[in-house]
Amino acid sequence: MRRSATVIAGALAAFTALVGLAAGPAQAATGQVVVFSTELQPLDIYQNPTGCQKLPPLSHVVDNLTDSTIRVYADPFCTIPASLPGSGGGVGTLAAGYGTHVSGVGSFSA
Fold first, then answer.
1. Which UniProt key words apply to this protein (predicted)?
2. pTM to 2 decimal places
């Protein structure tokens, strides 16, 4: 009985630690997310982005130059994941070092 109580206590401690890690504060992405709109406008650069960022109205391309995967959305409120085939990340995700075409009604979060 004593051995099973020790095993259960150990498993509970491991579970608590895992839940604590999963629920920890979000870390800011380090680096830049760069948005190209048109040839007549300067690039929009988001340095160490955090939270939901609405894309500029004429956005055409997003490049993730951070050290983290970002999420790209089809709406301005970071609620509807965008479909990004071939982006290297999957639906709604853009891996570090990749870029994708977007529309100006979208958003991204880091």
1. Signal
2. 0.70
Q: Give the residues across from 31 on adjacent strands.
A: 66
Euclidean distance between CA atoms 50 and 71, whole angstroms: 11
- What's the burial of 88, exposed, middle or buried (CB within 10 Å: 0-12/13-18/19+)? middle
Edge to edge, what strands does the sheet with 70-73 contain? 52-54, 107-109, 70-73, 93-94
Q: What are phi and psi of 53, to 5 degrees?
A: -125, 120
Structural contact between residues 78 and 27, judged by C-beta atoms closer than 8 angstroms:
no
The tens digit of pLDDT for each residue in 64-73 reads 999 999 999 9
> For residue 88, is it left (φ>0), alpha (ψ between -120 and 50) or beta?
left
